[in-house]
Amino acid sequence: MVESLLRKEKKLAVIGLGYVGLPIALEFSKHISVIGFDINEKRVEMMRNGVDPSNELEASAFEGTDIYFTHKLEELRDANFFIVAVPTPVDSHNVPDLKPVQSASRTIGNVLKKGDYVVYESTVYPGCTEDDCLPILEELSGLKMGVDFKLGYSPERINPGDKEHTITKILKVVSGCDEESLDVIARTYEIIVTAGTHRASSIKVAEAAKIIENTQRDVNIALMNELSCIFDKMGINTYEVLEAAGTKWNFLKFFPGLVGGHCIGVDPYYLTYKAAELGYKPEVILAGRKINDSMGAIISKKLVQQLIKLNKQVAHTRVLVMGATFKENVTDIRNSKVVDVIKELQTYSVNVEVFDPYADNEEFEHEYGVSLVSEVAKGYDAVIVAVNHDQFASYDEPFFRSIIKEDGIIVDVKGDLRKKLKGLSYWSL
Fold first, then answer.
1. Which of 5, 32, 186, 228 is paired with 406 by a 20 to 30 Å CA distance?
2. What does each C-alpha distance from 87 to 18, 19, 157, 263 come to in angstroms?
3. So what CATH class is 295-429?
4. Which mean pLDDT values do the consecutive 10-residue runs of the chain (429 residues) have?
5. b/e code 20-50 from CB counts within 10 Å (16+ = b)
6. What is the pLDDT of residues 256-286, one digit of tens each?
7. In angstroms, rounded to a whole number, what is the distance separating the alpha carbons of residues 52 and 123?
């Protein structure tokens, strides 16, 4: 398989061309023939014109590649090695939504042939690939795994906005349904991943490894958020405490903040769902999720309390929220916890304006019912720096003084401005 791919006698297909799938497809297409498949025809057309719909990649990333973009099922029949990189969200009740990955399985099942390989990269709970996806592949193709085709799992490790830890530089965890498939899948990824591969003993182990990467971070951030609530009551700055504690060589450097996005704020629910299905009630993981999901409300309530102490009529106050995406320097607004801050302030009838040069106003308004302002105004009673975009890092004390009232309050969620703003009313987690 690997040699046939390198000789371009066979083709690799990537199903789902979002922030994970497109970089993978383009990287492979520098070495082998690739079919990039996405069900969104508009996105496919943009990629055909060298535009990344996720705004993560420059036009130069499309240059010198052997890739064909399509939304047509029949054009996938030419592929022999399939990689699934579709999203795996949760619903409004935090229950895993497997519809995208099941749909991708049906797509592949309709074109699967003897000798083909199918590898899933989408984050799922342990057992999902073999228990939920495999039956779809076998039923629609009429083929048998291990006999007619091979199955594997290799969790994505792409970090949106990170230009240093790119796909080729991150060790790739790989797994297969047997020793032969494990070797082929590892060598296929080694075509592009210079950091090498880690060969997991089974598909379930690889699935579990991915799910705990983000669960571990989620729980640790929850601890920092809880500490920030405690330290706030003590009148000490959390970041100063962490700075001091961080001088010890084995202190883990996690920080408080809003935990959103499509990884850390979602993946733990896949693990807790499966655990509950098996009769085990997770406590630490769900406690961490509860704390992190509450931070938007905590930030808003703290600000309202401060406004009241200043004898301001809350319903007549104007608050600017800077940043709306789920993290700094990305355009992605999915599961942005900044929205929790905005919605909570609105319950107090605060007049909220939201500014973010990265976010798309039409998309944000459609998703959350909130419009973005195109520029920062003046006369705000408070400013919340919710997302630390690089553009915001250049803003200094004179800038903030120019946009807030004399008794205005600065809320610096991530604490990056604490050494810059000495003469203003300031609060951070």
1. 228
2. 8, 10, 13, 10
3. alpha beta
4. 95 95 96 96 95 90 95 96 96 93 97 98 96 98 97 88 79 97 97 96 97 95 97 95 96 94 91 96 96 97 96 96 94 94 97 96 95 96 96 92 95 91 89
5. bbbbbbbbbbbebbbbbbbbeeebbebbeee
6. 999 988 889 899 999 999 999 999 999 999 9
7. 22
Q: Give the Cα separation of 207 and 209 in Å (integer).
A: 5
CA distance 155 to 126: 12
Secondary structure class of 379 (helix, strand, coil)? coil
Query: Taking the model in full, what pTM does it have?
Result: 0.92
> Which string of DSSP letters, residue by residue, matches 336-348?
-THHHHHHHHHHT
Region class of 261: left (phi > 0), else alpha (psi between -120 and 50), else beta: left
Q: For 293-352, write each residue's pLDDT tens digit.
A: 999 999 999 999 999 999 999 999 999 999 999 999 999 998 999 999 999 999 999 999
Report the CATH fold assignment for 2-201.
Answer: Rossmann fold (3.40.50)
The strands making up 150-153's β-sheet, listed across from edge to edge, are 67-70, 34-37, 11-15, 79-84, 117-120, 150-153, 172-176, 197-199
Question: Catalytic residue at 177?
Answer: no
For the chain, the farthest-separated pair of C-alpha atoms sits apart, in whole angstroms, at 74
List own/partner pairs for 309-316 with CB under 8 A and 24 or more apart. Answer: 310/407, 310/409, 312/381, 314/348, 314/349, 314/350, 315/348, 315/349, 315/350, 316/351
C-alpha 57/C-alpha 51 separation (Å) is 8
CA distance 317 to 134: 56
Residue ranges, CATH 3.40.50.720, the chain: 2-201, 295-429
For residue 70, how many other CB atoms are within 10 A of its CB? 18
Residue ranges matching CATH 1.10.1040.10 in the chain = 211-293
User: Of 128, 133, 177, 263, which is the active-site residue?
Assistant: 263
- Written as six digits, the tokens of 109 are 């099942």
Whether the CB-CB separation of 156 and 20 falls below 8 Å is answered with yes
Q: In this structure, are strands 79-84 and 404-412 parallel, antiparallel, or unpaired?
A: unpaired
